[in-house]
Amino acid sequence: MLSSRPSTDTPPRAWRLVAIASAGHTLACLVLLGVVAAEVAGHSADRVTLGDVVSVLHSLVPAQAALAGAVTGVVTTVIALDALGGGSGWSPWTVAGLAGVATAVSATGGHPGTGVAAIGAALHTVTAAVWVGSPLAAVITLRHAGEWSIFLRRFTRVAFWCAALTGVSGVALAAAFLTHPADIVTSDYGRLVAAKAAVFVLLLWAAHRLRRHWVAPAISPTTHVPPSVSRRRGVRHSLSLLCAVALAAWLAATPLPA
């Protein structure tokens, strides 16, 4: 999946994807910062002043998280653009680290819990992002059967631990916010948690089937899987993972049980 190769050996299309994604992340963080400042100030977003922004940065964690996300996004965009121009021999691991920090900060800032709960939310979000984002990035950037073979061989090991950590942290977070077992069926939050758990189990089952019918032949030296087949199966797998992301976003916007 990731390697220690410098930017001169990393496909330009990969750096182009990083530049677009990080620029989009930066814009989203800045918009979020403006919306938070407008809500606190009590007027529309087009009337936000620098003073409003400074005020929320002093007092609100979500605003601080949005600013931190914007800063890491800018840095990542600059690195990707420099790598596209044949610059400083950047390693993909540098970008992965920055993306992990941005994701963890965003999750922590937007989570209702503090302390251990916030750390759990960060772990849950980062591992889920790697699990979901890696095959999606592969679909966009990989072109040859050899590239798919290398990616799948590495990703299967990473995906196992990401799925395990996502599941464990998700259960821990649900237990922290569902104070009574009845909340699972009596509250919107609990029902969404149950739906998300069901989707998670289905994803594990689908991943097991994909490993048998796609990954194993693709990484075997004695069989050949055309890139078009890998791309098609990668798209299907990514779409199924994005269903879980949609549920997670819905869950994040749902009030906790009283």
Automatic annotation (TrEMBL):
Its main location: membrane. Keywords: Cell membrane, Membrane, Transmembrane, Transmembrane helix. The keyword Transferase does not apply. It is a multi-pass membrane protein. Residues 151-251 form the Copper resistance protein D domain. Pfam families: CopD. It comes from the Bacteria. It is found in: Cell membrane. The keyword Transmembrane applies. The chain crosses the membrane at residues 61-81, 116-137, 158-177, 189-207, 239-256. This is CopD family protein. It comes from Rhodococcoides kroppenstedtii.
